[in-house]
Amino acid sequence: MSVADPKHPGPAPRSSPLPNQEASFTLHGMGVSGGVAIGYAHLVSAAQLEVAHYEVPAGEIDAEISRFEHAIEQVRGELVGLRASVPASAPAEMTAFLDVHLMILDDANLSQVPKTLIRERQANAEWALVQQLDMLTAQFDAIEDAYLRERKHDIVQVVERVLKAMLGTGHVPDAPSHEENVIVVAHDLSPADMILFKEHEFAGFVTDLGGVTSHTAIVARSLDIPAIVGLHRARSLVREGELLIVDGREGVLIVNPGTQVLAEYQLRQSQLEIEKKKLRRLRTTPSATLDGVHVELHANIELPQDVEEVREAGAAGVGLFRSEFLFLNRNDLPGEDEQFESYRQVVDTMKGLPVTIRTLDLGADKTVNGAENAGPNPALGLRAIRFCLAEPQMFQTQLRAILRASAFGRTRLLIPMLAHSHEINNALAAIAQAKASLERDNIPFDRGIAVGGMVEVPGAALALGYFVKRLDFLSIGTNDLIQYTLAIDRTDDTVSHLYDPLHPAVLHLISHTIRTATRAGIPVAVCGEMAGDLAATRLLLGFGLREFSMHPAQLLPIKQQVLRTNIPDVEVIAKKILRTDDPDKRQALLDKLNS
Ligand code: PEP
Ligand code: MG
User: Do residues 319 and 383 make contact, with C-beta atoms less than 8 angstroms apart?
Assistant: First the structure.
């Protein structure tokens, strides 16, 4: 959530960056997208507790209180609306938790006490509310009963809603003018926050938390602007308006650079721009290796409007449409018609090229408003297909919408996070049910629509027999496959140094999946971040991969690598890499492969 400090409304517009006299320092994190950004810091808060504190003049106290009361009313309306939109078939806990939130909202501790604080302390409403929250959470922390202690999170969620309502614009900061000169500095940003930034033209992003394959980083990458995560202390050390250089490739943030450093990075920035322009010439070049093997390069999207960049990059299709992003940042669920229009827009724009729509992958770090309670370990919880099978009505709505879009162009259905044969059976049965209902309603759809499964759970990769029997294609989600194979939460920057796409176990699972699908005669793609990683392209080609799906911005560099690769050469080295246990030998082979 963004809480822009009203006393510091963002950097003043300046036409070209000037070094200032403040001490220069450097912070190191993990680069999530390449390039260099130079601009002025704009501090944004993601945490509910980081709010501005300022004095409200005596004559404006009543207005401040009514601003607070309006926010409470707005949230009450949101919660009542959400409660009414819960399908009858939804689990009872869903309405119960909304009832609890309504009760919390109406409790005098939240709805009245802050008003006294505003008046007595002559302080702004956000600050008063957070003071009260701090007091309440401290009381909850002292409770012995674990269940009751956990209710603290419900209070935090309600307070977050009220803070959002007071901000009016939700998560987006007051956009400073001249956004192209602005670098957003945040402690943490959720994928839902990031998606809102798509509407802006900021020069770069840096955050203290987050892993390189978290969905926040993925959306940052899709914006194709330099970004760094895992900087730990940027939010507390950087001041509003300071000049910053973001080196998104090396993961380096330079604060208040000196004249010489600034000049070097300006030069680097223009060199990168020239390289990018040159790559555009490859847009229409057929994607094939030196020895003439065709390689399909598809693109990943989060929202329908991303499809324009897919066309510009010359992609052969949409290999992954993360449909759950349509469900974020709103207080209701998109209905069948609304979803259908979004899917059809993408299918139409792709003009007959394949569009792979993944069914909802909600849960873990992507949650719908009002359903933040994702269990004790969200990445291992009720996520993706598990969540959809638990919410059959919601799943049917989406399946009908996707099937309806399939009448307008080549569409494929992709099911995330499958692990069990019964999940495959149940997902296919749900698709059959959606088809039958469309038949009954006389609504056209592609009866032969291909249905694929994501391989992103190690258990699935090791037991693919049933997958290749029942499904039409596979897509390897390396982001989750790595997370689950190496037991590393992909959103946790404290373990992100252990996130290793080239770990032998990961490579075995990937090559085994490609081999099994190829033998069974069904297409297989990689759609995780590894597909857009130049360091992995030749290795994946050597394993036999012929379909990659990545962010549009990564497509042309990957195509260039494909054009420079000879399959027989890389096959030999890829085999050797799989056979060796020795990390040094493996690294030497990888260097040779990419030289
Ligand atoms: C993956 O896990 O690799 C994937 C493509 O899905 P997501 O990143 O959306 O989890
Ligand atoms: Mg995944």
Answer: no
State the distance from the centre of ligand 1 to the C-alpha of 204, rounded, in angstroms. 23
Residue 497 appears among annotated catalytic residues: no
Q: Is residue 101 among the annotated active site residues?
A: no
Query: Do residues 79 and 162 make contact, with C-beta atoms less than 8 angstroms apart?
Result: no
* pLDDT one-digit tens code per residue, 205-253: 999 888 888 877 888 888 888 999 999 889 888 887 899 999 999 999 9
**Nearest Cα to 453, choosing from 319, 358, 381?**
358
Q: Which of 250, 251, 167 is nearest to 206 (CA)?
A: 251
Taking the domain 19-45+174-276, which CATH number applies?
3.50.30.10
Instruction: Output the pLDDT for position 219.
Output: 81
- Indicate which atom in ligand 1 lies nearest the CA of residue 213: 8
Q: Is the pLDDT of residue 468 over 70?
A: yes
pLDDT at 62 over 80: yes
How far, in Å, is the centroid of ligand 1 from the Cα of 555?
Answer: 17
> Is residue 88 predicted with pLDDT exceeding 60?
yes
Helix, strand, coil abundance in the chain, percent, nearest 5: 50, 15, 35
| Radius of gyration in angstroms for the set of CA atoms belonging to the chain, rounded to a whole number | 25
67-83 average pLDDT score: 89
Q: What is the mean pLDDT of residues 548-564?
A: 97
Distance from the alpha carbon of residue 213 to the mean position of ligand 1, in angstroms: 8
Q: With a 6 A CB cut-off, is 361 part of the ligand 1 pocket?
A: yes
For the domain made up of 58-167, the CATH class stated in words is: mainly alpha
CATH number of the 289-594 domain: 3.20.20.60
Neighbouring C-alpha atoms within 13 Å toward the C-beta of 589: 22
Taking CA atoms only, the protein residue closest to ligand 1 atom 1 is 477
Nearest protein Cα to ligand 1, atom 8: 479
Report pLDDT digits (tens) over 319-347.
999 999 999 877 788 999 999 999 999 99
Whole-structure pTM over 0.85, yes or no? Answer: no
Q: Which helix (H) or strand (E) holds 133?
A: helix 125-141
The answer to whether the CB of 302 is under 6 A from ligand 1 is no
- Fold match flag (19-45+174-276 vs 58-167): no
Residues pairing with 453 in the sheet: 415, 474
Q: Which residue out of 171, 215, 298, 551 is catalytically annotated?
A: 215
Q: Give the number of the ligand closest to the Cα of residue 479.
A: 1
Q: Is 363 in the pocket of ligand 1 (CB under 6 A)?
A: no
Which of 298, 388, 527, 551 is an active site residue? 527
Name the token pair of 565.
Answer: 């690769």
